[in-house]
Design a protein that fits this description.
The chain is of the alpha/beta class. The protein has six helices and five strands; from the N terminus they run αβαβαβαββαα.
Length: 146
């Protein structure tokens, strides 16, 4: 969902400031704000599960902008299952899973400048290393319906 509490325009603005490309999945009332913040961003709209897995597999990182407490964002687990690291706000309920920096990076919740800093520092080597750790840790104990 591209809605204000998910702050997709914060991610878009930080990505543009960092000179990073951006592919955005979802739809909602904040789509125009995303386009305004990062005109070069590719808005994919609503995508199916197969397309999401493909996008995650080729992404340098999954970036979440949420400014509210997400209960347990499954997309983080889906990213690690695909070998994709995550960049998430420190106010996220599952931020502790990223706090040590081995499976992704944290930034200060709602702080565009801090997210921009993290994006600038997140090169291909960092992505590969943290993605591999995320992949191995996920598949060592994969999430199940149980």
């Amino acid at each position: 969902r591209l809605t204000p509490e998910k702050a997709p325009e914060l991610v878009a603005a930080a990505a543009r400031a960092a000179g990073a490309g951006l592919r955005v999945a979802g739809e909602g009332e904040s789509a125009d704000a995303v386009r305004a913040a990062h005109p070069e961003a590719v808005l994919l709209g609503r995508i199916d599960a197969a397309t999401m897995r493909r996008e995650l597999r080729y992404a340098r990182a999954l970036v979440m902008g949420s400014i509210w407490m997400e209960g347990y964002p499954l997309v983080m687990q889906e990213a690690w299952a695909a070998g994709t690291p995550v960049i998430v706000p420190d106010g996220l309920a599952e931020a502790g899973e990223v706090a040590d920096g081995t499976r992704g990076r944290l930034y200060r919740i709602g702080d565009e400048a801090d997210l921009t800093r993290v994006l600038r520092s997140f090169d291909g080597t960092t992505s590969n290393r943290t993605g591999e750790v995320g992949y191995r840790s996920y598949w060592a104990d994969p999430l199940t319906l149980d």
